[in-house]
Structures are given as C-alpha cells and as structure tokens.
Design goal:
The complex is a heterodimer. Chain A is α+β, with helices and mostly antiparallel strands. Chain A contains 10 helices and 5 strands, in the order ββαβββααααααααα. A 5-stranded mixed β-sheet of chain A has the order 2-1-5-3-4, with helices on one face. By secondary structure, chain B is α/β, with parallel strands linked by helices. Chain B folds into 2 domains: 3-128, Glutathione S-transferase Yfyf (Class Pi), Chain A, domain 2; 145-258, Rossmann fold, CATH 3.40.50. In chain B, 49% of the residues lie in helices and 11% in strands. In chain B, α4 (55-74) packs across α5 (84-94). The radius of gyration of chain B is 18 Å and the shape is globular.
Chain lengths: 237, 270
C-alpha cells in the first residue's frame, strides 16, 4: 500500500513565539495554519493588491528581507513581522489642479528632493520595480518616464518604510500616473462616445426596468443572455 | 570618431535644456560622438552639500560603475558634463579611492549588492576641458566669429575648488578666456570671476545670493562687458534672477559662434 510522503514541518517565529508549520506554505497560509486570522493586511491573496507586506529575517543572515505574505514561502527559522498598513498621508488633487510639471510634484511632495539614491526602495520592491529610478526621473523633470517605470506599483508601501528620505513613493507615483494619464496619454474616443450616449438618455428606460426587477427575473434574463447572447426586446438599446 | 559618455545632470535636464542642446551640438561639431549614459543618477551635489560625507558619493560611484559597462559597449572612456556641480562631485568620486580611501571602502561595500566596485577606468571631464583640448578646431569651425564681443566669464566655485579637482588657478582663472579668444571674442578682466554667487542659498537665504551676485554684477558692469557667460547652470540661474546682466551658458555662446544652433536674435545684441 502506497503512503503519502511524511509531511515536513519547519519552525517559524512570529511575534516572538515559535510555531511549527508545514513546509511549502506561504507566510499567510502558515500563520493561518498556526491559528491566526487575518482581518487586516490581507486582500487578493494573488500578489496584486499590495495589502500584505511582510518583513523577515533568516537565521544567520543580517539582511532585512521584505515581500508579500501571500507570495513568500516560509523557510525554517524565519523571523516574521507583518506590516498591515503603511501610513501615507496623501493629497489627492482634483483633475483640474493637476499640472504636467515636475515642480508641481515637488511642491506637493517636497521630500523627493532629499533622495540620496541609496536604492533601498528598489531592493525592497516586491514587484521588482525601481522606485529610485522613478524618483530620479521626476527630479530631472521626466514625469512620463517615472509613470512608465511605476505602472506596476501595487502601493504596498515597503519602499517608503525603507526610505531614509521618508519619501511617500506610492502617493507620488499615483500622482505622477494621474498627471501622465491626463496630459500625455491618448484620449479614449470610445469612452467619450459612450458618455455622450449616457447623457443623451439612451439607456434610461432599460436601466429603470432593470432596477425595478426582482432577483429571480434578473437571473432568468442573465441565464438567457449567457445562452443566446441576447436581451429581451424591451431591454435592447 | 571619439565617443564621449554624456552625463546631463538634473539642472540641465530640467531647467536648461537649451544649454544642453547647445552643448551637445558643439561637441558633435567638434567631431565627437555623444552618447548619453543609460543609467545616471543625481550626482550627489544636492544632498551632498548638506548631508553626510559618504552618502553623497553613493550615486556618483554607482554612475561610474554603470559607466564602465557602457565604456565596454561604446568605447567611450570619458564622462563629460555641462554642469560644474556634477563635474566636481563625479570627479571627486572618481578619485575617491586615493582621496578618501576609508569612505571609498564603505561606499563600495554598500553598493556591492547592485554593481561591481568601481576600480578606475573612466575620465571625468567638464565641457570646458573638452573645448580647451579642441580649441584650435574651434577657430577653424567658427562660422560667426564673436569679433570684438566684450564678454565677461564668470566661473563660479565648482570648477576651481578644491585643488584636487580644480581645472585652473582658483584666484585667476584664464581657461575659458583662452577658448573664447579663439573665436574672436575679447574677454574682459575683472576681479570676481570665482567669487561665490551664493549657490543653494537661493532656496533658504536669498539675501546672500542677492548680495553676492550684486557685487559680481557691479564688477562686470565696470569691466565694460556686454554679456556674461558661465559654465554653471546654478550660477546662471542666480545671475538671471538677481541681476540685470545679460547672462548665458557658455555652451550657448559657443554654439552661436559655430552656427550650429539658432538662438533667439536678441541673444547677442547689446
């Protein structure tokens, strides 16, 4: 009779306590195995939402390592600390206030001029981005480069925690992304067209009908739509 | 064709792109291939002026380490910059091993996760040095000689101090004047060529800049010059903001003389 290979257990340390957990789990799953329940600092569990930054060290190694709890496998002897939330005071300007100008970004986030290019941010980025290059690009006035370099930022905030200049990278990058979106990216004609259609009232009747329906009828229409690709006549627009 | 690795620096890239265009056009007219460094970072001039000594070398050493890679690809062994602050910081970083070996070791140790330690192999040069070395060609290439133009050269601090990286005598520099004479200009002599303009005090203590540039401006006016040129974007900014002098970056005047870049017509009128 064949037997499953014996499960290998390893020891991790969390909040100063040792826990024995199966080898091969992510930090998040290992902590849940150990009995913790995540009510904060957990989101998509797929490495995309940036809610679960984690800081850890490995035995015999001086390096502070960082990652996402849902993506990083546990290792024997790992010392773990979760960062459920990184405080980033962010100013979100209205669209009309945005200016395509590095001076404007510096005015809102003056600390970026303190970048000494130590590159601690890039070493911390679980997305493998280079926040330092983006900050440096802003300092030389190249907002488009900065936006391009940080498009994949998930705003976990680990770079900010490691930054000796206390730069609020995710907030800065969000601002730069918006500026570049408003001033440099091509406008989407189809969206403008659809907004006009909505404003002209084209969807008002169908929408009012949908809202007034009970869930059972909605479900019926939906199933029918999946099968045939059609809506009942009075909902067509 | 000799290749120059070009280090732009933040000031030129952000605020003085016309000086940058002029400088590159001049270097190309002199027969150089100008290749911008693929990876370059703030030279350290900004944080370095106010902060810990070893921190300011981190970005410069990183730039040099990455420059070595590009030297292998392009054959260019000289990093040239139009900004004296960048020149000064990069040059000191280039000489760090001999000037401050303990700081060199610490910086290299810090950077070893990212780049190979910089062990020499690049020359750091300011635009002025390249011009000086090619000054005989300048005379041949000039299409619009600056005949009789009374020009004051304002050097500022960073090309002349400290001694280890100085390009000329800090009290009586003549380097740029000899370049301009090749183009027919008549550089004037005046006493405050390397008197500090006030530099970064423009941010926190503008009164210092107003006072210093005021002194410099009086000396230049007394000398009879009709225009002042400087190799430094920060000096240029301070002179333009606090005085009525007609000031331009050195690269722009040279580009005008070589006819390689059109400047607005009022640029050279008295």
């Amino acid at each position: 009779m064949s037997q499953a290979p014996p499960r290998r257990y390893i020891t991790i340390f969390f909040n100063g306590e040792a826990y024995s957990v199966p080898h091969g789990l992510t930090i998040m799953k290992a902590l849940e195995y150990a009995g913790f329940r995540f009510t904060r600092g957990s989101g998509c569990r797929g490495g995309f939402c940036g809610a679960c930054p984690v800081v850890y060290r490995l035995p015999g190694d001086y390096k502070i390592r960082v990652g996402l709890a849902c993506q990083t496998p546990v290792e024997d002897g790992m010392y773990i600390s979760l960062i459920p939330y990184v405080p980033l005071v962010e100013y979100v300007p209205r669209r009309e206030e945005l200016k395509p100008d590095a001076g404007y970004v510096l005015k809102l986030y003056p600390e970026i001029s303190r970048c000494v290019s130590c590159n601690a941010c890039s070493k911390a980025c679980p997305q493998g981005l280079s926040p330092m290059d983006a900050i440096q690009a802003i300092l030389r006035g190249d907002l488009r480069k900065a936006a391009e370099l940080t498009f994949d930022c998930i705003a976990c905030g680990l770079c900010s925690l490691r930054c000796p200049a206390e730069i609020r990278h995710p907030a800065v990058f969000r601002l730069v992304g918006r500026i570049v979106g408003v001033y440099y990216m091509p406008r989407s004609r189809s969206v403008e067209q659809r907004v006009k259609e909505i404003e002209s009232g084209r969807f008002n009747n169908a929408f009012a009908k949908l809202v007034s329906m009970d869930p059972g009828s909605l479900r019926k229409i939906y199933d029918e739509y999946l099968k045939t690709g059609r809506l009942p006549g009075d909902l067509e627009v | 064709m000799k290749t120059l690795l070009y280090y732009p620096g933040c000031s030129l890239k952000r605020d003085y792109q016309e000086a940058e265009r002029a400088g590159i056009a001049v270097l190309e007219a002199l027969g150089y291939r100008v290749v911008e460094l693929r990876d370059w970072y703030c030279c350290g001039g900004y944080p370095g002026s106010t902060s810990l000594d070893h921190v300011k070398y981190v970005s410069s050493i990183r730039t040099l380490s990455k420059g070595i890679q590009q030297k292998k690809e392009t054959g260019g062994d000289t990093i040239v910059t139009l900004c004296p602050f960048c020149y000064n910081t990069l040059k000191q970083a280039e000489k760090l091993y001999s000037m401050k070996p303990d700081i060199y070791r610490r910086v290299v140790e810090y950077l070893k996760d990212e780049v190979e330690p910089y062990r020499g192999g690049l020359r750091v040069a300011h635009f002025v040095e390249v011009l000086y070395e090619s000054r005989s060609d300048l005379s041949k290439l000039a299409r619009r000689r600056l005949s009789g133009l009374k020009v004051a050269v304002y050097y500022g601090c960073m090309l002349l101090r400290p001694k280890a990286v100085a390009l000329d005598n800090p009290d009586r520099p003549v380097l740029v004047e000899s370049i301009l004479r090749e183009l027919g200009a008549e550089p004037v002599d005046y006493p405050l060529k390397s008197y500090c303009c006030g530099s970064f005090h423009s941010i926190l203590e503008p009164s210092i800049v107003a006072r210093n540039t005021g002194k410099i401006a009086r000396a230049i006016v007394d000398s009879g010059a009709s225009i002042v040129v400087t190799p430094c974007p920060l000096c240029l900014s301070n002179l333009r903001k606090y005085t009525d002098l007609r000031a331009m970056h050195l690269s722009e005047l040279i580009a005008q003389a070589l006819g390689v870049l059109e400047l607005p017509p009022q640029a050279l009128q008295g």
